[in-house]
Amino acid sequence: MHLVALGAEHFRNLATFRLEPHRRFNILEGRNGQGKTNLLEAVFLLSAFRSFRDAKNRELVGWGEETTTVYGEVVRRDIRRTVQVTLSAKGKRVALDGKNITRLPDELAHLNVVLFGPDDLVLTKEGPKERRRFIDRATYAVWPDYVTALRRYAAALKNRNELLRQATLGGLDGSVIQAFEHELVGHGARVIQRRLQFLATFQPHFDRVFDHITAGALKGGIAYRGFKGLEKGADLAGIEAGYAQALDEARATDMRRGFTSVGPHTDDLLFHINRRSARIYASQGQHRAFVLALKIAELHRIHEAIGVYPVFLLDDVSSELDAERNAQLMSYLDKAGGQVFITTTDRRFIHVDSDARVYRVADGVIRAE
């Protein structure tokens, strides 16, 4: 899987461009604030149809313009597809192979992308929101139908929360709320089951990568934290039963507070190094090694599932990794294959062979060197 063409008009600060990226390494060199990360954002937009910075549509449109268009040509197993995303303050339009899509299908696997940048260190340092986002995106890449369960769970959760808000005003009793929990339990259990299945298949890849990065000196661990009593190997029926019981036990409290306090939307991933919490005890270098291992393992797991490597986006990682970690990363990428886009302030930080193309980015202008 790789991009054979990439272009944009009026995207952030970037001048209109059209590139024919290298099949392997694409090095984007330039000083900070010139637009390198914006180019990575354009690639990500073609995959997820949103910004990895969670920016609003109008924030992606160049100054003084009304719309922006980003387009690309993707080759996946010798099948070429075109994708185009047009954004404005009024909304978003997506076209695949020249046909506008009014409603994005639940299962859409045209371009898989893995991103690793400085902000990803929040995975081991901050709260659970980013960790849930990590596992949901990775699970979707392996099983595209996973997004259906997520959407249905979100809709059922919204309905229950609305009933709970009514209950805080004294308008409903618990029996009414319980009657509406069947769908929440069913869709929530499917989300949890898929997450657990993903972790079971992801963990061996992570173990190998983390062991290599730390030269065997450290042992990393990942655990899923859900409702009380959730068993790692539980089948769907067992997860449903456990989730229904957890909701039953939390119902009175939820009615007082006005929101659902248990379920996939509150679950978390627990990261450990030598059986101690990475968030609490890890050094800065260990945080970086752990997140690097997560991202490389994600590449391998997606490759295992779909037979091709996703496009890998690395944003200024040379400033976040020490020389040893940076060399290990480049070694992995050389062996793995796949298309890579890397931003850097100095190309000398990027130790790859001649199988690469360098782009100079200055004041929003991209030039091939």
Describe the structure in your own words.
By secondary structure, the chain is an alpha/beta fold. 43% of the residues lie in helices and 23% in strands. The strands form three sheets. The protein has a six-stranded antiparallel sheet with strand order 2-1-4-5-6-7. A six-stranded mixed sheet has the order 8-12-13-3-14-15, with helices on both faces. A three-stranded antiparallel sheet has the order 9-10-11. Strand 4 and strand 5 form a beta hairpin.
List keywords for this structure.
369 residues; alpha/beta; Rossmann fold; Glutathione S-transferase Yfyf (Class Pi), Chain A, domain 2; 2 domains; six-stranded antiparallel sheet; six-stranded mixed sheet; 43% helix; globular
Can I get a quick summary?
The protein has 369 residues and is of the alpha/beta class. Helices cover 43% and strands 23% of the residues.
- Output the helix-strand order: EEEHHEEEEEHHHHHEHEEHHEHEEE
The total tally of domains equals 2
- CATH topology-level name of the largest domain: Glutathione S-transferase Yfyf (Class Pi), Chain A, domain 2
Radius of gyration: 22 Å
State the distance separating the first and last CA atoms: 24 Å
State the strand order across the main sheet. Answer: 2-1-4-5-6-7
Strand content: 15-25%
Mean pLDDT: 90
CATH architecture of the largest domain: Up-down Bundle
The outline comes out as: globular
Structure classification: alpha/beta
Total number of strands: 15
